[in-house]
Amino acid sequence: MELWYTENHTDNVKFSIKVKEHIYSKKSPFQQIDIFETYEFGKLLTIDGLVMVTEKDEFVYHEMISHVPMAVNPNIQNVLVIGGGDGGSVRELTRYKNIKKIDMVEIDEVVVRSCEQYIPQTACKLNDERVSLYFEDGIKFVEDKENEYDLIIVDSTDPVGPGEGLFTIEFYRNCYRALTKNGILINQHESPYYERDSKEMKRAHRKIKNVFEVSKVYQFHIPTYPSGHWLFGFASKGIDPIKGLDANKWNALGLKTKYYNTDIHVGSFALPTFVKEMLEDETV
Amino acid sequence: MELWYTENHTDNVKFSIKVKEHIYSKKSPFQQIDIFETYEFGKLLTIDGLVMVTEKDEFVYHEMISHVPMAVNPNIQNVLVIGGGDGGSVRELTRYKNIKKIDMVEIDEVVVRSCEQYIPQTACKLNDERVSLYFEDGIKFVEDKENEYDLIIVDSTDPVGPGEGLFTIEFYRNCYRALTKNGILINQHESPYYERDSKEMKRAHRKIKNVFEVSKVYQFHIPTYPSGHWLFGFASKGIDPIKGLDANKWNALGLKTKYYNTDIHVGSFALPTFVKEMLEDETV
Q1: What is the ipTM of this complex?
Q2: Among A266, A273, A276, whose Cβ lies nearest the Cβ of B270?
Q3: CA distance A235 to A244
Q4: Record: contact A272-B221, CB cut-off 8 A
Q5: Do B266 and A268 touch (CB under 8 A)?
Q6: CB B223 within 8 A of CB A228
Q7: Of A231, B171, B177, B188, which alpha carbon lies 20 to 30 A from A107's?
Q8: Domains plus CATH for chain A?
Q9: Can you give the C-alpha Rg of chain A in angstroms?
Q10: CA distance A39 to B104
Q11: Interface list for chain A against chain B, based on CB atoms closer than 8 Å
Q12: pLDDT in tens, A129-165
């Protein structure tokens, strides 16, 4: 008997991963959480039947979500991570000695506890003394924050279910207020390839553009996400992700990475023409 | 009844595309050729059960294989395309008025004729008066050529079956001799993600590095290829793909593209650290 995990990327496209063992399955108050041991990708975390993290390629996502802002502003001290229950973003952030405080606000404690137990590759630094875990709604959490964080990372699921409120203009406004003058917002920005994903991407981008002075998008290759072509948003009150990069300074830190480097930092902001056109589309 | 085309990306990963109609199927002397009408990707050409071209994303592949060298050397006049039976590379090349001659050497006439009939989106410019079609073995074709082409594009299948000889050092040496002083070789360079593909990529790269003075690699997002993370090689006798780029000159041509632009030209040569390390690996 063969066991396969299959994700529908659209109604007409399926991606299937051969499973050694279905290790964990739980319905939390928010969502369905499953962990599989797979042949090709190591451990696989899915939420509501969608790939969130695999051990083989999580480094791409977590390095690109954290090192890009940190290389632009190495003076970042206070960080807020919204979502990111697998712990991978926090793992990368804790590598920076400069960072004094990381608040991680994850609505679903079950995600964190299951990853701590079964995917320590990502959930290995949640006990760092600078990290405070809040099992709360990130949307509410930022409502009363002001001038408090140098970096907010929205490491969310897609804009359905608990993730939906993380793609609203009210939320982006609250993030703006919660950020310091040199603050940076990084958010999961969906994909430009399949229609459903690209619609969400266009909507999210239009809203962020209305709130932040600087609003850019960068891309990366993550093969286990639909199409493998994924985007993060970079927004700030003035800092530019390219002009603000001090490559020598970041390289002097000596951090060993597998995907991120200061060349791909710059290169990832160069977008295909069809993506640029989508981001400029004001009709959505 | 539902019809699905499934490709095994590895023994443990499958990619499936819902099919409206299986339009064409033929075993040529070289390989098995099939064309499907699909819901998500339009027409789909497969060879020996592997995705070669889909109408939805062929523009990525064909723009990146042709415009990168053309933007580096706008004086290119004589071009050799090896493989490329779907016609997409030739379609992009014929947009350059400067080009005087395009020799396309495709071993399998059945690929060309089936694409002319069923995928005119790519095979629409093979009757351009500058194009000469040779249904021959590209490996033999370049053996006696000397100082003849400004650009050679190796638009090949993977290094199995008829494509195998296009990944040998003898072939790269013959290309070198066939190229003019400012000549450029672009070749299909496989993917860094799955082990089988990345092994081929490392091998091919090591050989090209031994033959050409300049040997670089650039990447692009093509969702219907395994992992969606694909590479082309850029090799020359001295011209550098970044320093040699005259962005203003290319932009002045006014060519409308969907993926390529002069920013992504530069950005695509910035590679993830794990890819750079693979390309430097001398043990393969």
Answers
A1: 0.96
A2: A266
A3: 13
A4: yes
A5: no
A6: yes
A7: A231
A8: 3-53 (2.30.140.10), 58-280 (3.40.50.150)
A9: 18
A10: 41
A11: 4, 10-18, 38-40, 57, 60, 193-194, 219, 221, 223, 227-229, 257-261, 263-264, 266-274, 276
A12: 999 999 999 999 999 999 999 999 999 988 877 778 8
